[in-house]
User: Fold this.
Amino acid sequence: MKHLALRNITKGIFIIIVSINLTPLYSKEIVGAWDTNIGHLNPHLYSPNQMYAQIMVYEPLVKYEDGKFVGGIAREWRISNDGKTYTFKIDNNLHFSNGNRLDSYAVEANFKAILENATRHSWLGLTDKIQSAKAIDENTFELKLSSPYIATLNELSLPRPFRIIDPSSMIDGSTKDGIKSPVGSGPWVLKESILGIKDVFVPNPYYHKKSEISQLTMKIIPDPNSRILALKSGGIDILVGKDMISRESFKILQKDTRYTLTQSIPQGTFNLVINSKTISDPNIRKAIILTINKDEIWDKILLQIDKKAENLFQRNLDFCDVELSKQEFNLQKSKEVLKNTSYKNKAIRLVYIANNPIQKSIAQSIQNEALKVGINIQLDSSEPIAFYQRQKNGDFDLIFNETWGNPFDPHSFISSMLIPSHADYAAQDGLENKDIIRGLIKSILNADNKDKIQKEYKSLLTLLNNSNIYIPLSYGVVLGVFNNKKIKSYKSGDMEYEFRFEDIKIR
Assistant:
């Protein structure tokens, strides 16, 4: 069957794309939704490439599943006694979705392309430690590090950048300026992408596990209310993703027997960050924190769905079980603290994402409580791309932020604090003890003794907690809902953007 679609290729220019459907639209087609297109789907680059799709199309050497590392492209691996050499064994019957062989030489070509653009990936502790990445033979790949790195397997398993594309899809052996086509070895193949309309995936015929789904279509529906209407009208079968469903809709759908709802394990920490450079007085930062009614936010806005957060990282994570002082809500104390500062009703900008109703509601709550003690919070809405640029540039007084959950936290996240790529670098840049904080992070990233790492994490987390720049709100969960008349079961993966559509059981 032929399909006609309009695609916006360049400014103001539209052309007709004629594509041939490779898979008939049987009842096994499942339809979901996302708020934006997947991008060029380059496995080695970032936004606008959508992480959920990078995970679907590309595989890593190792995977993170059920709290441990299991084989991905590599069926097994060995770590040298000094912790600096990782030797991976690759199966000899692996193929990319186009039929090309996936061997150690293909893995080597990918690492070469990734390291060619190493500065772009400098937020990862592993990047600077790789001394060599080479194929020993077609089934053996060797990674040599300059020093041991305890989070090596964590970072190899991430959604990006250490995922493997068919080298024939690179441009002159490189991916830093783009790719020819998104060809991986993951469970899904991108069949079609129409700007603002949909992204269509079909199963990879060479993947080791056969899916019950013949086609997965992700409709592009930016508005959250429209996504729910599409679900109720039968226009979509499944909706999954942290910001794809409002908590109000989730609560309502719990009462509807037509749908089954899912909820992931707690992931990253949803928090507010205060910029220590623009609000340099720690007592002003303390006064702001004392006006934030976290219990009310959790109860009335987050609707008790997420787990309450007290620390920057969940205490059940490696090295994070540290007893820290808790933040309190106390307007009277806030007034008393504020008296000992030079604050004179200056507007404090709280930046939030314009189309994120949770952030907007929390921002309004904070604004109202702060006004009671004389703190002037000015709400500043920002489009998503501009929002993340403002995080990076430090163009905020307060801004929403999140840690990244499994398997990023805590190692990869603290590594990212060392460069101006997220809100944390800017938030810490005005602290008097920032050099001590950054020194601790560097020491942790270069240590391999677990007792030393634990001791330094305790010092680091205590310093960050006492700096009055982080306000943990909740440990976020990924919500999902599906039509149980069509779908029998669905299970999300361990990572925030890992949706195991290939494991869906249909009726």
Notes: Residues 450-466 form the longest helix (17 residues). The mean pLDDT is 92. The two ends are 25 Å apart (CA to CA).
